[in-house]
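Record 1 of the preview.
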Amino acid sequence: MKHNGIHHILALTAVVIWGTTFVSTKILLREGLSPAEIMFFRFLLAYVVLKAASWKTRPPLRIKDELLFAVAGITGGSLYFLTENTALQIAPASDVALLLATSPILTVWLSKAWLGRTERSDRSSGWGALLALSGVALVVYNGKFVLNIHPWGSFLALAASAMWAAYNICLKKLDRRHTTLEITRKVFFYGLLTLSPVFLFTPLRTGSLSLHDPVVAYNLLFLGLVASLFCYAIWNKAVEKLGTVRTSSYIYLVPLVSLVASAGVLHEKITPLAIAGAALILGGVYVAERGFRPKLLPDTPKTKCL
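->
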């Protein structure tokens, strides 16, 4: 539909920003914050701002919806970040990035099981997924095909991918009765709530957070207000209008953005194979998108004269 153009831009904007967050995360890790602390502070900042902007809240319409909010906070918040960050500590980043890119494929499978006919696609979307995933493999390895097997790390990366797919399914089930901002606020709340037990084993070091340090303050503000609050809100809106499967196709672009950011910020080399991978990703996303365009039935006339 013509009116969906803005929602494609929203999804694209979210993945472009998410593709650059690894730089801020690395800086904060270097400054002494743990992965759990980084997630806690970025979600807390986003939640406080969103709560202040929409302090008038209504009670849950149904207990089932509140449970869905909790599942969304776990799958798209605490459990997703914990499995992803733990996988990165065990397995090479390239392996984890490749496995995380399977999220759109898992989203297709889950949407068929949970959403049924409300999410449709054809063979073009399957071929597009295959092309894009092949491109992701070339991009994340960037010409260095050294695959180190880390079963536990690989399992956690796939678990993170499945968590994000489940999160998108929850969004689609909730958007019929709740606004985007309400869903986003609830996701941050339950993400924080379900992350809290982690600090029983590894205490939250509030002393690690120094807003007087411009480096820490800037990167936390970026992760909290831009990568979390802004990106989650526009991503949730895109899922509401485009659907889970269609929006998830943009996830393939995250490794491509990370590659460009690495070259620009960390001065990492981009190989010809990585460039070929970038072309495959863009082509795969284009082919997959064609699979969602409505088609007229053979016996349906295109126009009707009155």
